[in-house]
Design brief:
2 copies of one chain form a homodimer. Chain A folds into 3 domains: 71 residues, Winged helix-like DNA-binding domain superfamily/Winged helix DNA-binding domain (Arc Repressor Mutant, subunit A), CATH 1.10.10; 152 residues, GAF domain (Beta-Lactamase), CATH 3.30.450.40; 94 residues, Enolase-like, domain 1, CATH 3.30.390. Chain A contains 12 helices and 10 strands. The structure holds a DNA duplex (30 and 30 nucleotides).
DNA sequence: GTTAGCACTCGCCGGTCGCAAGTGCTAGCA
DNA sequence: TGCTAGCACTTGCGACCGGCGAGTGCTAAC
């Protein structure tokens, strides 16, 4: 175990296959290189180490990293300075998207890997309020305010012409009847109650299709990717042909969204190499954390790098960041 | 001139230095390779061509490209299909940011280079309307609606507590007094008239600092970069060390903003190689166009690639796109 | 003014070779 | 029985080198 730990630590640091001599010199295990060689041969047989070629040192396999992550690595802690950097960055923002976005930026710059972040969709939020504003007779600005401090506006072209008075009436009824309803349900499924209170069926139809269109117009930009260029510095991506597929993958926001949001339960998850399935993520590791509002997971944030990842540091950063982000969101919500 | 044209055309196509034989074979100039060699030696002496090394063919210099762009190149025209792709993409959006953003995406995918786009700032717009909504007693949602169909919302934490009634009063006064004012001037320089109409100096102060904070909170994300990975396919960026500085430069949104928005006059500009100044853009060419609302330039859009750029095609795409974008924005505005 | 011929230049490619790092194995020692 | 020193073996990597081919510039002739 101590040899596996030493090999992994050293390889994470140097990106060079680690030989028995190196370990004997740099890590005081109290045994000679020859002994280490014997043990390393065993570790290779067990699948924890592998050899890029016969005359080279050893590097950890995915399994080796997994074992390392699950128990061997020494947990890192962060400088006061770094904690402070995160906290001030988060206290500078109020809008939730910006909060999450700048969190992703901080994570990228602190870890020097790529970072990913998912912002909650307004559709998943509980409606707090909706505002309807006529920009032109047939263009309406719809502003949704959702419960975890989420605000989104949509500009909708309508078939029907609207006066500001009509919109004000609809707005008032909606806000009276629908507070606490999931935003997703605002579309065609507008409730009977709204129809009753509004009275006018024409107005009701217009409102329903207005909201439906507003929800359909929706921002697809829910995943932020920051610091992708950091991957350039990693020796494993020195080769363009290895880097390109990865960067191309990072452009596919829907795929990223799938991966990140599949990680629904609260807490921290590490996916190593092949655990990400086949494809461009095969040689990468992904550390994911969730952030919450009111005890409920509303989004995810992740770090992506080569399998040779500084796991302990990344885990420390992610723990702190997820915590701070959740707290910042909570502060926004529970103001006096 | 015909030889310069042939060399440039061929080099743009193949990315290989062009020899006299190749030109004689592929372009029917009616002369032999020997003649072409003589002329090419002259063109090199004049600075239009250069030789990567003694035994290689010629490639155009920046000056050569400049001459080519200014008169030699044969203007490209676009397929009906491509025009159609642009038009449908633009008709699917209504919000101005999305319109510009998806324009940038279309340009990137059509040219296979990187594309840049600047969205107008709400600060530069004329105020059409402002909405103030209390989210919490000390958190106000400010929605600005600007004249070229620009909408932006900001969430502001305030020192003072606001009731919705107070906000409604301020909002009414602001909308009465300040329609047509530049959004930028909404902050501290709130006009005397507003103070007079409001009466209450406390309310006036609160409103002024609320708007000031709202403007300060402002989105710094005004430049979109799309298709940066397309640059991977260009042989001149095969080398990571050549590509990285460029991608790093593309991350500096403020520098990009400077470059693009310095191009203020209406129309199309091409900057070739060193014309971009020293630094990461030295080996690149930039084609910039403006888009307008009501005859006024409100934003820019650009294409970035190696100096060996398909100028004629890029110019055709940019002409069309700028035109279509301006028209789409005009349609949004002049609805019946 | 144009062209054919020819000697010359130089980057690229494939092969060879020595070096260095690291291994596995064996024999010896506590 | 576990550990260690010694040693032969493997193999990737970088340097060196020579032939090839593309392309040039020059000269002489038309």
């Amino acid at each position: 175990m101590r040899i596996l730990q030493a090999v992994t630590d050293d390889y994470i640091l140097t990106a060079e296959p680690v030989g028995s001599r190196t370990i004997a010199r740099k890590y005081s295990l109290g045994v000679s290189p020859a002994t280490i060689r014997n043990e390393m041969a065993d570790l290779e047989e067990l699948g924890y180490l592998q050899q890029p070629h016969a005359s080279a040192g050893r590097i950890p396999s995915d399994l080796g990293y997994r074992y390392y992550v699950d128990g061997l690595m020494t947990p890192a802690s962060l400088d006061e300075e770094e904690r402070w950097a995160i906290q001030t960055e988060l206290s500078r923002r109020t809008a939730i998207e910006e909060l999450v976005h700048s969190t992703a930026q901080v994570v990228a710059s602190m870890t020097r890997y790529a970072s990913l972040a998912v912002v909650p969709r307004i559709e998943d939020a509980i409606l707090k309020r909706v505002e309807l504003i006529a920009l032109d007779p047939q263009v309406v600005l719809v502003v949704f305010v959702g419960i975890p401090g989420l605000v989104e506006h949509r500009v909708v072209e309508t078939h029907r012409s609207w006066t500001q008075e009509e919109l004000a009436r609809v707005e008032a009824v909606l806000n009276d009847c629908l507070e606490g309803v999931s935003v997703r349900d605002l579309g065609r499924t507008l409730y009977q109650q709204v129809a009753d209170v509004l009275g006018d069926p024409d107005l009701y139809d217009g409102a329903a299709s207005l909201l439906e269109d507003a929800l359909a117009a929706g921002g697809d930009e829910r995943v932020y990717v920051e610091g992708a260029i950091n991957l350039f510095h990693q020796p494993e991506f020195r080769d363009v042909d290895r880097l390109r597929p990865l960067l191309e993958f990072l452009e596919q926001k829907d795929a990223l969204l799938n991966i990140l949001s599949s990680h629904g339960q609260s807490g921290l998850t590490i996916r190593i190499g092949q655990e990400n399935g086949q494809g461009p993520l095969e040689g990468c590791s992904l550390v994911m954390a969730t952030y919450e509002v009111g005890g409920q997971v509303v989004g995810q944030i992740g770090v992506l790098g080569p399998t040779r990842l500084e796991y302990s540091r990344v885990v420390a950063v992610m723990r702190l960041v997820a915590e701070e982000l959740s707290q910042a969101l909570a502060r926004r919500r529970n103001r006096p």
